[in-house]
Write a structure and sequence with these properties.
Elements lengths: L1 H8 L6 E4 L15 H20 L7 H18 L3 H10 L1 E4 L2 E4 L3 H14 L2 H5 L6 E6 L9 H24 L3 E6 L5 H4 L1 H12 L1
Parallel strand pairs: 1-4, 4-5
Antiparallel strand pairs: 2-3
Helix pairs in contact: 3-4
Amino acid sequence: MLAVMWGAGHPDCPGVVNLDGHGRKRPDQYVGLDPLDAKQRQEQLDAVVQQSLNALAGPLKPAQVDALLAQQRALAARIGVADGVLVEAAQRGLLTQGGDTRIRPDVAGLGNEILADADAFDMLDLYSRVRCPVLIVNGTAAELGAGPDWIKELMAAYRKGIQRDLAELAEQQGNVRVANLAASHALVFEQPHAIADEILTFLR
């Protein structure tokens, strides 16, 4: 998303790549779901995510760090990658000072601001203002997780809407190319070689 923002302000940029950053969700993007139902489900999901984030605010207890890393190992098993890849990534997101371990950026501060700004940003509007070449690598699979079916249904509907809107965008703007990959938002871990191939083709 930051790359696309850069491209909007620098039309002479040789090209920008967006890896599955879609910003604000619109009610009509939940294909097959009633807009009101989709809105209520999304609000419920947002509350679940916020509750999970709030639990990680402030100094983390050793048991919380262990649980966080165990969660990453489980995700790695579902994705089919070495668990060290995700564990090391999670560890880079931890900061230990004075005996306290915290998530960075601070969940209660900058971290929440970043997530709120990303969720509120209208990427489709931004694309209309970009003149340099753009490659959008889009994951088409619902998120991999052990959550309830209603969340999986919500995300599957949203993925269909994003794919539809990006296809229309590519038809309307000759500078935009969309590469759809059968992957979740963790696509950089799930399909690194496919992403590299798409970027190399784009650069050529």
